[in-house]
Amino acid sequence: MKVTIERAQLLKSLGHVHRVVERRNTIPILANVLIRAERSKLSLKATDLDLEVTDSITAEVSPGGSTTVPAHMIYEIVRKLPDGAQVVLEASSDRAVLTVRAGRSRFTLQTLPESDFPDLNAGELTHSFKLAAADLKRLIEKTQFAISTEETRYYLNGIYLHTATAGKKPTLRAVATDGHRLAQFELALPSGADGMPGIIVPRKTVAEVQRLIEDTDVDIAIDLSPSKIRFTIGDVVLTSKLIDGTFPDYARVIPLGNDKQLIVDKKEFEAAVDRVSTVSSERGRAVKLSLSGGKVTLSVTNPDSGSATEEIEAEYKAEPLDIGFNSRYLLDIASQIEGETAVLKLADPGSPTLIQDKDAKGALYVLMPMRV
Amino acid sequence: MTPGPCRDCLADVPDGKARCQACGSPRIVRHSDLDDLAIAHVDCDAFYATIEKRDNPAIADKPVIVGGGRRGVVTTACYIARTFGIKSAMPMFEARRLCPAAVIVPPAMAKYAAVGRQVRAAMLELTPMVEPVSIDEAFMDLAGTRRLHGMSPAKALARFAAGVERTLGITISIGLSCNKFLAKIASDLDKPRGFAVLGQREAAAFLASKPVSLIYGVGRVGQTRLAADGFRLIGDLQKADETSLMRRYGAEGRRLFRLARGIDSRPVAPERETKSVSAETTFERDIAILRPLERHLWELCEKVSARLKAKELAGSTITLKLKTADFRLRTRARTLTDPTQLAAKIFAAGRDLLAREVDGTKFRLLGIGVSMIVEGRDADPADLVDARTARSAAAERAVDRLRQRFGRAAVIKGLALEEDEEA
């Protein structure tokens, strides 16, 4: 195998795939990237057995062939090569090593046989649809922060993607929750998604997709089955297993009936929460909201260091109420609000609060209060 | 020889006299820095065996082994039994082979614990600065007690040892020094019924000829590693400079450098801040199957949970500990989003970790611990998707109340565990 390719192109392509490779691997082949060259095309593939990314680019190939080399190492080598360099990848005749040459630099990397490289068999993908890159970006951005990291409830370690209805219109809805907060975002159901199974897309996959679509504005093709999902972004294809579990019945915790409405200026509110929470020593301490009349008083008390209060104007007509929230969670949600005002719908200090964003259609958040 | 107090009658014995002029005892505490030393390590001699002998004078002059029961190992051997080569943790059959005449007594932990508490109470009369190490061992800091007792720490300790012997009928050994490390070493020098003094000045010379394993925290593995680097004796460590030890062993290197010279600045800490709460059990027979392991795990979780609740604490990191039949240790940890004190939650995480380890390997020990400790009021907040958290917390507390009134056996959870609703 011999491939000649421009350094920037190879670097970009390696950049797409190498992040999938875990830094620490007990199975040696999983540390490698598969390089395959045929008919003026170079394709790269990396996997962690749950997630697989492939990319292909045009290159000068003669002769074709394939091998695998340590992914992070070849990425670092190519990254450090001078801009504009022509890179030559050449496998030895016994395929034991791959040489990487550019200018006067020469590297020899040990290889592992291609036949050992695992293939994430996607099986039959039953549903296919397309999403605009901007829509997929928003869908991820609005929900990703609420994904749980706790493994005991593994079925919360992803975004639950499923069909729903808003008004009478069918939607594609994404929900994520860690038990303390819940984020929901939906958009009009794309054609082809009708009848798709509800799936849980793992956190790592979500993060990889988010990176891959960062600088793109093409439509993204999504193919899925109850156990796998595939995102096709131009020449890059990401295939992932889905979380095998049942997402909880989240609809029953969305308190649509909460009748105490608080409307605050988003920027003012966010800044005030941020300011008063400075005195809390640990992350995610409670901030108390005291609502009465036309104002809300935010306060934080830290027995070790002191206390802080701040009063901001608000629209609130219900009877006075004291309620506590985790300041970090409150900030996370506040920073998601796109409009000028945030609408909080409350019931009592022990029940979930609904937070809405008038300017972000399809987005809603639920936050569990904290004891204060 | 310097002057010092008599351990039997507390009279001051002047320089040059081998015996106390008042009572004729040869047991004199002497050390040139005696008046400056205030940190003591107190260790009861063959604690369990001594108590058994006290309670049954017929076996007082026989070799006595406390042990048997569960693992069939020696828990404590009295000093007569030790002359036959019997040691703690030795398999019972081997102990019997070494000394067929030995009297074997099954352990009565409740009794030993009661005596342990009496000893501790006596210590607390000397100083509030008592740091228990185990049931029969503690550090004491007697600095600043001279005016209170009207005597030096050495004298007060001698009086304390005599008092314990007289009132509780057991003997103790005392090590007096300027820090915990040296005090602990000293208490071992003159056992049983001993009183040894080790000052900072002679510490380095004393330690030089001792093996590195005398340093606490240097076990079998550490010893091998140090030996490979040429450090067999503490004296070898004394020759190395601090920088090179730190370069080689990191923070541990600094510790070794200091301890090799007898320098130890750890304070005697009476109420150690709880950093973790844990429980473990060694099985009668090694277990390789998940189901019985789960049952043991549940019991341990209940124990840990009860301790957390009693101390009004909670923690968010759950650590599972397993020891394989060939004594390899496996620990696996998981951090929860919220601190918990509920047995059910500790168990859920512990079971998950346990299930991954069950692969046919036989285990001899199982333990579960909770760390990242916070105050109990922050435990187990309400959860959006798991409505059961609040309910199961309430249920557990109800069970706790029942047990307080009717004893532990009043309520036992069937390990026909309900399956997760969501899973």
In short:
Chain A is of the alpha+beta class. Chain A has helices at about 5-20, 70-80, 135-145, 205-210, 265-275, 325-335; strands spanning about 1-5, 30-40, 40-45, 50-60, 60, 65-70, 85-90, 95-100, 105-110, 125-130, 160-165, 170-175, 180-190, 200, 220-225, 230-235, 235-240, 260-265, 285-290, 295-300, 305-315, 315, 320-325, 340-345, 355, 365.
Walk me through this protein's architecture:
The complex is a heterodimer of chains A (372) and B (423). With 372 residues, chain A is α+β, with helices and mostly antiparallel strands. Chain A folds into three domains: 2-116, DNA Polymerase III, subunit A, domain 2 (DNA Polymerase III, Chain A, domain 2, Roll); 127-252, Roll (DNA Polymerase III, Chain A, domain 2), CATH 3.10.150; 254-367, DNA Polymerase III, subunit A, domain 2 (DNA Polymerase III, Chain A, domain 2, Roll), CATH 3.10.150. Chain A contains six helices and 26 strands. In chain A, the strands form four sheets. In chain A, strands 14-11-12-13-26-25-24-18-22 form a nine-stranded antiparallel β-sheet. In chain A, strands 6-2-3-4-17-16-15-10 form an eight-stranded antiparallel β-sheet. In chain A, strand 11 (158-166) and strand 12 (169-177) form a beta hairpin. In chain A, helix 1 (7-18) runs antiparallel to helix 2 and helix 5 (266-276) packs antiparallel against helix 6 (327-336). Chain B contains 15 helices and 14 strands. Chain B has three domains: 31-198, Alpha-Beta Plaits; 209-259, DNA polymerase, domain 1 (Orthogonal Bundle), CATH 1.10.150.20; 276-417, Dna Ligase, domain 1 (2-Layer Sandwich). In chain B, strand 12 and strand 13 form a beta hairpin. Chain B is globular and about 80 Å long. In chain B, the strands form four sheets. Chain B has a five-stranded mixed β-sheet. In chain B, strands 11-14-12-13 form a four-stranded antiparallel β-sheet, with helices on one face. Chain B starts with a strand and ends in a 17-residue tail after the last helix. Chain B has helices spanning 47-55, 79-82, 92-98, 109-126, 146-149, 153-168, 180-187, 200-208, 220-228, 234-239, 242-249, 251-260, 290-311, 343-357, 388-406, and strands spanning 4-5, 12-13, 39-44, 64-68, 73-77, 103-105, 130-134, 137-141, 172-177, 195-197, 276-287, 313-324, 329-340, 363-375. Chain B is an alpha+beta fold and 423 residues long. Mean pLDDT of chain B is 88; it is low at 416-423. The interface between A and B is medium-sized, with 27 and 17 residues.
